[in-house]
Amino acid sequence: MRRISREQALDLYRNADLLELGRMADEVREVLHPDGVASFVVDRNINYTNVCINHCRFCAFYREPGSPDAYVLSREELFRKIDETVGNGGTQILIQGGLHPELDLSFYVEMLSSIRQRYDINIHGFSPPEIEYIADKSSLSISETLKVLKDAGLDSIPGGGAEVLSDRVREVLSPRKIRTSQWLEVMEEAHKLGMKTTATMMFGSVEEPEDIVEHLNVIRSLQDRTGGFTAFIPWTFQPGNTELGSKGQVEGAGFSPVGPATALDYLRVLALSRVCLDNFANIQASWVTQGLKVAQVALRFGANDFGSTMLEENVVKA
Length: 318
Description:
Layout: H1 6-15, H2 18-32, E1 39-41, E2 43-47, H3 75-87, E3 92-96, H4 105-118, E4 122-125, H5 128-138, H6 142-152, E5 156-157, H7 167-173, H8 180-192, E6 196-203, H9 209-226, E7 229-236, H10 243-246, H11 263-276, E8 282-283, H12 287-290, H13 292-298, E9 305-308
Parallel strand pairs: 1-9, 2-3, 3-4, 5-6, 6-7, 7-8
């Protein structure tokens, strides 16, 4: 496959006929996955806490410390969720949470160790913002923090917290969150340790086409160096109950309320991703945000993976 440039990618995004772009993406998918089989995993998203100090404007899930409905999962509840997952044939759990100011490295080590002692299951956990926060609180480097978590039982890292890897966009969406370079650093250090990760993109908010193309370019460049990404998963911003989507213009931020992206927007970005990311083996359809019918169509727009059966999901539905 011949690699396309940033300029070509931007032209495709802006000007390509959607069905033609979908055909191009499907041809790439067929070269990489000629068997025509769509993969998936049986797993569960477990959010160990909803407390977060980042206050992202696109998030409806987080709660302030001390909020009446703030929580940290007990070990008993955590194990109950994993037991149920295993009982349903699950082979993986995805563990993520907010940046809780009272949780330190020992909390994460003990949680991982307790899971590893009881279950033979893949632990896919802690997005780059969580890793960065744990490292900062522990006065450790990113690499040192990852080594500790890996030794405790962490197998792989999800690509959450990427949103759009453009600091201009991140300043609007999540001014307290890690910057693009920090997200990439966590992933590169994980890859150096032999840990596999995914990459994601949440689009359909305040980004421009150039930002989407830049996002694809920086993860493609990192994949060239490390080969550590297993899949790319784009999804659309879900505006309900968020500051960005439903609470009017944020003072001083320079944007108005953002509505939902369309299915056609989603398919365009998905197809462009498959065409651009020539070094990613897998592109995942987001049935959780798009619904099953659009996700089925996505399998002809470059996607070859259907993601997770997701026995539990709390963030999107918030």
